[in-house]
């Protein structure tokens, strides 16, 4: 990913800022899910390389903006100073904008996909990342601060803010692989439950995690008085809910009738990880 950004004709500071956040590390969960889905259908993972890169760029842009003082006001991300702490708020905002827009260029120029498939994937990704997806979830998250949300309201936030891009990763992989509509629907539900399990685990790690492992301060949600699953359900209740979603995810994956070993490993990792 950084190599394609280096070739862009743009001021060096914006390219440096974009690459800084892309190189900060992270689990690369979304690209991995896309590749694992292609693997589940016996397809060459190379088919999804451009979409996977674009997806990680969009995820990274969202983190840059999420960390800004006007949003979560975080100083650390993946164990490193957040983008705006290094490059200033203006450049950080523009770096996020750059990653978002360049992601669609990467898919549009892909040599691995047909023109029809590229158009469908771009429209799908725009929906998942936009106001009816991730952006809408972020807005709901901001509006929910300092309020006592119920579980349904909290699920709406996380299904959109986090879940939509996770679902995109899996379903886009299925679409590229030529999956049937029934398989796409089963995998979409698999990814939906997996996304909720992922977010509940994040809430649990905000209480139990180690800053050296998770790369950002623990207890930040409590300090901001945000609604979380442990706050609403108790810590034990949140753990049970996380396991319930994992079970549901596995049930839907079985219905998809694909080679599921790798996707099952990823699902178990999400629930058992320490960062």
From TrEMBL:
Cofactor(s) essential for the protein: Mg(2+)
InterPro entries (UniProt xref): Isoprenoid_synthase_dom_sf, Polyprenyl_synt, Polyprenyl_synt_CS, Prenyl_diphosphate_synthase
Primary enzyme class: transferase
Reaction(s) catalysed by this chain's protein: isopentenyl diphosphate + (2E)-geranyl diphosphate = (2E,6E)-farnesyl diphosphate + diphosphate
GO molecular function: (2E,6E)-farnesyl diphosphate synthase activity; metal ion binding
Keyword Ribonucleoprotein tagged: no
Annotated keywords: Isoprene biosynthesis, Magnesium, Metal-binding, Transferase
Gene Ontology terms: biological process: terpenoid biosynthetic process
EC number: 2.5.1.10
The keyword Magnesium is annotated on this UniProt entry: yes
Gene Ontology CC annotation, any one: cytoplasm
Residues in the signal sequence: none
Annotated PANTHER family: FARNESYL DIPHOSPHATE SYNTHASE
Family to which the UniProt record says this protein belongs: Belongs to the FPP/GGPP synthase family.
Protein name, UniProt field: Farnesyl diphosphate synthase
Species assigned in the record: Schinkia azotoformans LMG 9581
């Amino acid at each position: 990913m950084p190599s394609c950004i280096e070739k862009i004709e743009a001021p060096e500071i914006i390219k440096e800022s974009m690459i800084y956040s892309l190189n900060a590390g992270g689990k690369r969960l979304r690209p991995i899910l896309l590749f694992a889905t292609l693997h589940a259908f016996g397809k060459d993972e190379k088919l999804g390389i451009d979409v996977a890169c674009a997806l990680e760029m969009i995820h990274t842009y969202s983190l840059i903006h999420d960390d800004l003082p006007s949003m979560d006001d975080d100083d650390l991300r993946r164990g490193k100073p957040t983008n705006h702490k290094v490059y200033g708020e203006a450049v950080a905002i523009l770096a996020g904008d750059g990653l978002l827009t360049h992601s669609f260029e990467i898919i549009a120029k892909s040599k691995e996909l047909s023109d029809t498939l590229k158009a469908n994937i771009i429209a799908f990704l725009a929906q998942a990342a936009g106001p009816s997806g991730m952006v809408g979830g972020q807005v709901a998250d901001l509006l929910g601060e300092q309020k006592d949300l119920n579980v349904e309201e909290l699920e709406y936030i996380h299904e959109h803010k986090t879940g939509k891009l996770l679902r995109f990763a899996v379903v886009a992989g299925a679409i590229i692989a030529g999956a049937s509509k029934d398989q796409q629907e089963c995998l979409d539900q698999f990814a939906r439950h997996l996304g909720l399990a992922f977010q509940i685990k994040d809430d649990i790690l905000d209480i139990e995690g180690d800053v050296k492992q998770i790369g950002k301060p623990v207890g930040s949600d409590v300090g901001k008085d945000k609604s979380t699953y442990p706050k609403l359900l108790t810590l034990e209740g949140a753990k049970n809910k996380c396991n319930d979603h994992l079970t549901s995810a596995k049930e839907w994956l079985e219905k998809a009738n694909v080679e599921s070993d790798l996707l099952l490993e990823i699902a178990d990792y999400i629930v058992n990880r320490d960062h």
